[in-house]
Design goal:
The structure is a single chain. By secondary structure, the chain is mostly helical. The protein has one domain. 81% of the residues lie in helices and 0% in strands. The protein has seven helices and no strands. Helix 3 crosses helix 5. The protein is elongated and about 65 Å long. InterPro entries: SSU_processome_comp_20, UTP20_C. This is UTP20 protein. It comes from Picathartes gymnocephalus.
């Protein structure tokens, strides 16, 4: 898709691509700013190359305006999601409590795995699953 966006940009030319610049930059910006564990470095390099191509094609000023608008929009979405999570915590405390319990449980399991990897002789005590007890704790 990134190669397609680059090809379309070159094909349309400077004047016809300007209205579509924010739409083209959105996935490129998302790929550049992502911090997933299983991220493909070739995608990141490709998005950087296409951004450089667009910068040369459109000019620095038009590119900067479009890029800053995409950046601003992404930050607004991130802030809105954060605000919604905070409001949900207040509005639905039971769901928030469940989420918190799950997070703490995952954190403990991660800590045990880390200790086991650092010290192979040590076996951490695993939480035995008792379905009825787990349900009683959540509800």
């Amino acid at each position: 898709i990134f190669k397609f966006l680059g090809a379309i940009s070159v094909d349309l030319g400077e004047d016809r691509i300007k209205p579509y610049l924010p739409t083209i930059l959105t996935p490129l910006y998302r790929e550049l700013n992502s911090n997933y564990a299983e991220q493909d470095p070739t995608l990141k390099n490709l998005s950087q190359e296409i951004i450089e191509l667009l910068k040369k094609l459109v000019g620095l000023e038009a590119f900067s305006l479009a890029f800053s608008s995409v950046q601003k929009q992404a930050n607004q979405k991130r802030a809105m999601r954060k605000k919604q999570r905070a409001l949900q915590t207040v509005a639905n405390p039971d769901i928030a409590a469940r989420r918190k319990l799950k997070r703490h449980k995952n954190k403990a399991e991660t800590r045990k795995r880390k200790i086991e990897s650092l010290r192979p002789m040590y076996k951490a005590k695993r939480h035995r699953s008792h379905a009825l007890k787990d349900l009683a704790m959540v509800e």
